[in-house]
Design a protein that fits this description.
The strands form 3 sheets. The protein has a 7-stranded mixed sheet with strand order 2-8-7-6-5-3-4, with helices on both faces. It is of the alpha/beta class. Helix content is about 40%, strand content about 15%. It folds into 2 domains: about 1-20 and about 260-360, Aspartate Aminotransferase, domain 1; about 45-255, Type I PLP-dependent aspartate aminotransferase-like (Major domain) (Aspartate Aminotransferase, domain 2, 3-Layer(aba) Sandwich), CATH 3.40.640.10. Helix 2 (about 25-40) packs across helix 9, helix 4 packs parallel to helix 5 and helix 10 packs parallel to helix 12 (about 345-365).
């Protein structure tokens, strides 16, 4: 649905839809990519990825005590999600996913023969974690639980108490289940501290992450899986047949993502997105009088347009006025009546986008 909406945008439209950073990849990574292209061979790497890159990934999760055989470098985090669900899920296995949640989750589960079961992140509570409902959805048949923090589409972060409650519930009801933690947005946060990881509370956690969002490297396709060694061995066989290896040029350039210069760029970009978030929320609330969720991470807010009818109708009206938004029901029925709006644009374009959305809302009142 996201691509269908975006592809229908008129020339000159402002996109508040796609989740792709508009800021450049840090210079230190660009320089290293150019050097690698000019000075080094660009053949295959080991299927699991460059050992030096896996060492850097291991360093991000000291509490997991990982070795290099517990990390696979993938062609983006979406390959990671496919690999791990294909590896862990058999026909009829239950996979518990958030509602609302990332659109590919239920599709991948269907592809691998599993059965998607959802746990509610209630709109009435600004899409916060509902520990009681989560526990109700768990059964001994639950093979995998998927969590994402910060969330796409809501931008909400799971607190330590949320994660502890999740871990305790899985341990009590389905102790053999794995939790797949989608952490692609973990470095993009607006709280005082980096968001915690479920891996700090539940040992049978598999991390799926990458550099697409934190380093603005969406087209470079560098992601990873990290976790249980036996599971990684199985996933590596599949990865070898699906991809062989992630791009060697991208992998070598990605080594620079752990430099001080890259870390400084990440801090700078985080501050930019923080300012954009505050600007957008102010515009939506003060200019249009809309209820919207304050995201603690990622670059999305959920905007309640239920007072204007069906969210698809609102998005269609936005297209007519030259602004792209995403009907949030695409992410699950808990987000009916909402639009997901991205702040991957500068303040001037955000203001103009809100102005056009306001014109769309007025047209629905006529």
């Amino acid at each position: 649905m996201i691509r269908k909406i975006s592809d229908r945008a008129k020339p000159g439209s402002i996109s508040l839809g796609l989740g792709e950073p508009d800021l450049p990849t840090p210079e230190v990574i660009l320089r290293e990519a150019v050097r690698v292209i000019q000075e080094e061979q660009s053949g295959y790497t080991l299927q699991a990825g460059l050992p030096q890159l896996r060492e850097r990934i291991v360093s991000d999760y000291p509490h997991m005590n990982l070795n290099l055989d517990q990390v696979i470098v993938t062609a983006g985090s979406q390959e990671s999600l496919y690999l791990i669900l294909r590896t862990l899920v058999r026909d009829g296995d239950e996979v518990l996913i958030p509602n609302p949640g990332f659109i590919p989750y239920p599709m991948i589960i269907r592809m691998v023969g599993g059965r998607a079961v959802t746990y509610r992140l209630p709109a009435a509570n600004d899409f916060a974690f509902d520990a009681e409902d989560f526990r109700k959805q768990l059964t001994p048949r639950t093979k995998v639980v998927v969590c994402i923090s910060p969330s796409n589409p809501t931008g909400r972060v799971l607190s330590r108490d949320d994660l502890r409650a999740m871990a305790d519930a899985v341990t009590a009801v389905a102790p053999d289940a794995f939790i797949v933690s989608d952490e692609i947005y973990r470095e993009l946060y607006y709280t005082a501290e980096r968001p915690p990881s479920i891996s700090e509370f539940y040992p049978r956690t598999i991390i799926a992450s990458g550099l697409s969002k934190s380093m603005r490297m969406t087209g470079w396709r560098i992601g990873w899986l990290a976790g249980d060694e036996e599971v990684m061995k199985s996933a590596l066989v599949l990865h070898g047949y699906v991809t062989t290896c992630a791009s060697s040029i991208s992998q070598k350039a990605a080594l620079a993502a752990w430099t001080h210069e890259a870390a400084a760029a990440r801090e700078e970009y985080r501050a930019i997105f923080h300012r954009r978030r505050d600007h957008l929320l102010s515009q939506l609330r003060n200019e249009l009088g809309l209820r919207c969720v304050t995201p603690e991470g990622a670059f999305y807010t959920m905007v309640d347009v239920s007072g204007y009818g069906d969210e698809m109708k609102v998005a269609e009206a936005g297209l007519e006025q030259g602004v792209v938004t995403i009907p949030a029901a695409a992410f699950g029925d808990q987000s009916r009546g909402f639009l997901r709006i991205s702040f991957c644009a500068d303040e001037e374009r955000l203001s103009e986008g809100v102005k056009r959305l306001g014109a769309a809302l007025l047209s629905l009142k006529d």
